[in-house]
Amino acid sequence: MKRSTNHWISRALFVAFIFASTTSTAFSSSFALEQNVEDLKARANASAIHEFDLPSNVFAAEMIRPLLSELIERSVTFRRQCSKVRNAPLLHIVIELVPSLVYDHCLAVSLVTRYAYGRIDIRMLITVPRAPSSYAEIIGHEFEHALEQIEGLDLRTLASISGSCVYRHADGSFETKRAHEAGLAVAREFERFRNSSHGAGASNSADGQR
Question: Residue 30 and residue 28: Cα distance in Å, rounded?
Fold first, then answer.
């Protein structure tokens, strides 16, 4: 019964709005249209700004946050990953830098905890590599693993299926071809942006000398 009442109220409000619009002057209709256009522009600008922000459900060590901001700016792939993470409110990611891992075969590991009510906690442990591009690949790789968790992939089952491109290591951890390729893509985009920026700087410097 309550649902029916709410439905009636919403219909009444809708009719009132239509009536007010049809009795307004041409000037007010034009003004409303302009306002709608301005609102759409404002939303588009806000969305564009939002796209380059680190998702609020990602918590990172202070020393790595500047690099994450660079990755968002430089890598389309990483922006796509962040957009999907941002739209998963029950996902919480914590990124930590560590001197070493107990897993000998990797530079990073994501520890996943799932809760009955849907929350997913991911603790990304990343060892300190030698170059920023190494961070780019590692972070892109681990974020793709986060997307796999959002999608609910059963890695344990997939690892037992030939051709699934999901592998299980002897220590019980999993690896996917998808995450490997995503990491390489983020690293490529990061380096391409950096190289193009350096090239532009060199060109501007040469122009100034002339």
Answer: 5
Q: What is the pTM for the complete model shown?
A: 0.70
35 vs 192: CA distance, rounded Å: 40
What span, in angstroms and rounded, lies between the C-alpha atoms of 187 and 141?
Answer: 10
Res 28 pLDDT > 70: no
Q: Checking DSSP bridges between strand 108-114 and strand 120-127, what pairing results, if any?
A: antiparallel
Q: Tokens standing for 172?
A: 């019980």
What does each C-alpha distance from 112 to 17, 24, 129, 175 come to in angstroms?
49, 57, 23, 14
| Alpha carbon separation from 125 to 37, 99, 106 (Å, rounded) | 45, 10, 11
Residue type, 50: H
Tell me which DSSP letter residue 55 carries.
P
CB of 114 closer than 8 Å to CB of 120: yes
- pLDDT attached to residue 24: 39
Reading the block at residue 68, the tokens are 């994450």
**Which residues, at least 6 apart from 201, have a Cβ–Cβ distance to it below 8 Å?**
none
Q: Which residues contact 187 (CB under 8 A, 6 or more apart)?
A: 133, 134, 136, 137, 140
Instruction: Return all residues near 77 (Cβ < 8 A) that are at least 6 apart.
Output: 140, 182, 185, 186, 189
pLDDT tens-digit readout, 156-173: 999 999 999 999 988 888
Inter-residue contact 95 to 58 (CB < 8 Å): yes
